[in-house]
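Can't paste images in this forum, so I'm doing it all in text. The chain is below; anyone willing to post the predicted structure tokens underneath?
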Amino acid sequence: MKLEMFCRMAREAGCDWAWSDTCCIDKRSSAELDESIRSMYQWYSEAKVCIVHLGMTSNLDDMHGDDWFRRGWTLQELLAPSRIKFFNRDWEPLTDNENDKDEDTILISITHITMIPFASLREFTPGVDKIREKMIWASRRETTRVEDVAYALIGLFNVSMNIAYGEGDRAFYRLQVTIMEKSNNLELLLWLGNPENSRDRARWPLVPRHPPTVARR
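Text version of the structure:
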């Protein structure tokens, strides 16, 4: 039902083709999985429209409780596309605007939910600037696999790294190294807490799970 409705909304938006990350990636192929993860941000940014189904939302007033805003992978879905359209649990549009990035009301609500500035929601440019700020955005989100904490941020920082499921917390360590090599900016290390609190007591920190764990100037 969800896939059928997604395709219907894509057709109504004028799209001849639709792509869904839940069914259009052959996870049995490591090569396809690697390419998809590293290219996903670009695909979202080049899409005619990104359709978002908020399965726990009925209207703008209860949007804050939707799990979509707490998932690691959906951060790039929110920021990358130039046009995005939100639908509630009954597949009714949350606004009358064709592009919800042009709708101030919903963007203000999303800013309160995610702590992402209004201007970044409306127009986001990936790169290794504002590292601490982006890490704070990510810290409010969760992933099923620990490696995805890092992999879901590749596009936001516009960096490239190989995908290696099974490496555990080392994925985030590699992401940190890759970002610092590209930016030479050590503000990435301004975090608080004991690295031994990570799941396997690794020597490197995880992305902070809550903004207060990030050091403030």
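The chain has a mean pLDDT of 87. Residues 85 and 98 are 7 Å apart (CA to CA).
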